[in-house]
């Protein structure tokens, strides 16, 4: 347990010194602030453009708080998760590739502890930055539209969070497997593409973890119910456990 | 565009954070001449032109080892 705490501490120090924490914080704060603004001003910008071309008639509905959350989830789900994967791509790959982890392993640190601390440190950073973006988005949305009706608030945000953890687990697994930053990114990117392809099959959709990052806004407006999300949540959680166990198993067998 | 002027105090923080992100990355690019790949010129263009994702890319995969 002491080794775990010490290694977690080392991970946090590292993310501060390699600007990971700063980058994540800035990006997620930006995305949180940007989404309500985009929702609010897109119609005005379109109108200004259309005004220069009188033959074009664009009918734009008045933006609502719903549009703001729609923007939020699409920004976090694409740009935010992309930043998450890029920032953490060197999480395990870097240290195995450079061999700096060997020093600590020979001093008696177990390989499982390395994986668990890396996962928890990355998860903690993702959680804080994600909360930051939610707060920013909430403040701006409340400012523009006042109080608005939302449903399943916790589950909508939690699904995206769990999906982020899944991506971190894939990044760690890829890093252990290939010992390269690009291998780690490629594996995670490949998995996302595969999940997108699986999403074409209507029968597989409720079980596909990618649903957790794509339909949150629908959940927020009660167009989806909790039971629509439950299978994907379970599959996602199972995958995270499986990947973490897999990472430890592969790492234990790996020649460094 | 009058509404845009009214909204300036709300939009301003957005630009400031974006600027901080860009400037931090730019200063780092100029101060550390070693990159994992690419050259100073390439990274300066990436950091300035690609908003948000440029600095992320630089710090995550472009930044060389400290010496």
Task: Write up what this structure looks like.
The complex is a heterodimer of chains A (256) and B (67). Chain A is mainly alpha-helical. Chain A has one domain. Chain A is 78% helix and 0% strand. Chain A contains eleven helices and no strands. Chain B has one domain. The mean pLDDT of chain B is 85. In chain B, helix 2 packs antiparallel against helix 3 (40-49), helix 2 runs parallel beside helix 4 (53-62) and helix 3 (40-49) runs antiparallel to helix 4 (53-62). The longest helix of chain B has 24 residues, at 8-31. Chain B has four helices and no strands. With 67 residues, chain B is mostly helical.
How would you summarize what this structure contains?
The complex is a heterodimer of chains A (256) and B (67). Chain A is an all-alpha fold and 256 residues long.
- Poorly predicted tracts of residues of chain A: none
CA-to-CA gap between the ends of chain B? 50 Å
Compute the average pLDDT of chain B: 85
- SSE order of chain B in H/E notation? HHHH
Class by helix and strand content of chain A? mainly alpha
Largest sheet composition of chain A: none
From the alpha-carbon coordinates, what is the Rg of chain B to the nearest angstrom? 15 Å
Percent of residues in helices of chain A: over 70%
For the record, the count of structural domains of chain A works out to 1
Taking pLDDT < 50 over at least 5 consecutive residues as the criterion, the unreliable ranges of chain B are: none
Total E-strand runs of chain B? 0
Instruction: Report the order of strands and helices of chain A.
Output: HHHHHHHHHHH
- pLDDT averaged over residues of chain A: 90
Q: What share of the residues of chain B does DSSP label as strand, in percent? A: under 5%
Number of helices, counting only DSSP H or I runs of 4 residues or more of chain A: 11
* Chain pair sharing the greatest interface: A-B, 25 and 23 residues
Main beta sheet of chain B? none
Q: Choose one word for the global shape of chain B.
A: elongated
Fraction of residues in β-strands of chain A? under 5%
What gross morphology of chain A would you assign? elongated
């Amino acid at each position: 347990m002491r080794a775990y705490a010490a290694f977690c501490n080392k991970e946090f120090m590292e993310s501060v010194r390699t600007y990971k924490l700063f980058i994540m914080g800035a990006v997620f704060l930006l995305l949180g602030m940007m989404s309500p603004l985009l929702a609010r001003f897109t119609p005005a910008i379109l109108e200004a453009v259309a005004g220069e071309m009188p033959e074009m008639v664009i009918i734009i509905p008045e933006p609502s708080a719903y549009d703001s959350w729609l923007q939020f989830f699409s920004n976090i789900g694409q740009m935010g998760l992309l930043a998450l994967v890029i920032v953490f791509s060197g999480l395990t790959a870097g240290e195995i590739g450079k061999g700096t982890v060997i020093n600590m392993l020979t001093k008696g640190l177990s390989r499982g502890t390395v994986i668990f601390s890396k996962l928890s440190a990355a998860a903690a950073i993702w959680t804080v930055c994600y909360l930051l973006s939610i707060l920013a988005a909430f403040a701006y949305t409340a400012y523009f539209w006042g109080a608005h009706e939302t449903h399943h608030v916790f589950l909508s945000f939690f699904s995206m969070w769990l999906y982020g953890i899944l991506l971190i687990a894939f990044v760690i697994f890829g890093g252990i497997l290939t010992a390269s930053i690009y291998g780690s990114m490629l594996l995670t990117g490949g998995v996302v593409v595969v999940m997108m392809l699986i999403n074409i099959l209507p029968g597989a959709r409720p079980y596909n973890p990618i649903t957790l990052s794509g339909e949150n806004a629908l959940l927020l407006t009660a167009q989806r119910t909790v039971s629509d999300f439950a299978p994907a949540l379970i599959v996602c959680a199972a995958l995270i456990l499986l990947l973490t166990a897999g990472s430890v198993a592969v790492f234990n067998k790996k020649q460094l | 565009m009058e509404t845009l002027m009214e909204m300036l105090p709300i939009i301003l923080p957005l630009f400031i954070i974006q600027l901080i992100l860009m400037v931090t990355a730019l200063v780092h690019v100029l101060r550390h001449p070693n990159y994992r790949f690419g050259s100073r010129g390439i990274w300066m263009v990436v950091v300035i032109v690609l908003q948000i994702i440029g600095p992320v890319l630089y710090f995550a995969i472009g930044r060389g080892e400290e010496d």
